Amino acid sequence: MDIKEIIQTTNAFLIEEFEADPAKIAPEANLKSTLELDSLDYIDLVVVIENNFGFKVNPEDFQSIITFQDFYDYVARCLKQKELV
Amino acid sequence: MNRVVITGMGIYSCIGKDQAEVRDSLYKGKSGIVMDPERKAFGYRSALTGAIERPNLKGLLDRRARLTMPEQAEFAYVSTVEALAQARIDPDYIERTDIGLLFGNDSTARAVIESMDVIREKKDTMLVGSGSVFQTMNSTVNMNLATIFKLRGVNFSVSAACASGSHAIGLGYMFIKNGMQDCVICGGAQEVNKYAMGNFDGIATFSMRENEPEKASRPFDRDRDGLVPSGGAATVILESLGSAQRRGATILGEVLGYGFSSNGAHISNPTVEGPVRSLQIALKDAGMQPGDIPYINAHATSTPAGDASEAKALYEVFGASNPYISSTKSMTGHECWMAGASEIVYSMLMMQHGFIAPNINLENPDEDAARLNIADRTINKDFNIFLSNSFGFGGTNSSLIVRKWEGK
User: Fold this and answer.
1) ipTM above 0.95?
2) pTM, to two decimals
3) In CATH, A3-84 is 1.10.357.10
């Protein structure tokens, strides 16, 4: 899966399952404030990532994800590691 | 002691999704029972059930609210919106008043089973998601509604098997009567899915008349062969008379009596003596004699033992006065945890519109029922008081008496 597909898939589930406003999704936008995420929402992010990308997230990893771009890059890194394994 | 009145009602059931639809179904004697092939494939002996679809709440409630709601909470949300609108209780009033919430609910099977299936498959509890824990607790209806409507008064669920909804109203009545609350949203909710009723089916409680779904629920009839499971939700807004008058609310009825008892006997077999005591306590609480009650909404679920036992109890207390009796479960099936609340709504609708809904499918009353005045067809009749019975496994009994509000 290339970065373009990762961005498309991610944005699709954020719009569908997190009811994100498509107009507010931008690479540099703040993920938490744009999606109004609370602590429970991060659990659901773990679930949608597993369902869509097939890997289990370590919840602590979210601490370093600030922007949407951070999120896309994190998914790309994890998928690459998964392929290497 | 405060007088306790009803200022709002809501209903979401297999015979209608609001008061107007339900009133028409009750008047016409319309059944809401169908055959569900999915249950047969799942291993049910009887695939009969009340048919009710899940409401689409997208656009009405945000994602966080919807995630924590199993279907019975969704049903209860819809019935409570209708009830609050009728009572003209809006968010501003809720913010200024400590309104309570007492809902009857005694299972949340689908949420438990589906979440455990995910954990078993994924071997990771986090992958069950954040909504599951709030869906799987028995108090799920209360925790969801109290959060959505921002309620700040008494808040807990009542689990009393098939008398849950009735006891919830009885408890709300006591909280208000004793001056501890001015307004309590009461009700009952029941999930409708293959997971919720499998073990109930397994003890041979359900009607096997699958070839005639609409004729399967036949309380008091000689040829009845079991109940038909059903569900949905019903809401009744209880309020002190003083509160209702201060707000200028339209008062629909007054709760006059709450009777309750425990059989102290078998876990599933009914008794006559237990319900008799519940009826007598309700009459005493209301300061009434049996002859003051013109209509009784019976618990009668269409089981051979249960209906016969209730008929004997009704005859013992009301044999001399001979009021009209019907079981609306003949149309709705047994709405279980919801039934005690929905049957208050059904009886209120009849009382408001001047008719007694029929006990459909009563073709040949059995020996006990033949001694009672059971309405086998719609009776056009004005009446101003009714009693509603609800009984449950473990021998829990509840009887409520309600009078039409006629201005004083």
Assistant:
1) no
2) 0.96
3) no
